[in-house]
Amino acid sequence: MPAIAQLWLPPRLRLIRADNPGRSVHVTALETPPNLARNLFDLSIFLEPDGAVAPNTRLWPDEIIAVCAPDLKEASDWTALPRLVDESWSRDWDL
User: Fold this and answer.
1) pTM, two decimal places
2) Which of 30, 31, 57, 86 has the fewest Cβ atoms within 10 angstroms?
3) Average pLDDT over residues 78-82
């Protein structure tokens, strides 16, 4: 996911490059998994829907949590508050 490539990966990428001198590391951020039969990637990381069967190794489970401004944490009716919705993850509030 682009957010992981932009926010989580950069500080770790320095360590990966330091541990692997002489190796080339490139990052491609996509919203959907690539066709690995056509695109040459050594590593692909994506979220799979629950119950999906794919040749993968689960690194950690996905966790969805609500986040709000500190002054709203005592709100009595969360459903009345405005919500930010990601275009790719529009059903997260339902979950």
Assistant:
1) 0.41
2) 57
3) 79
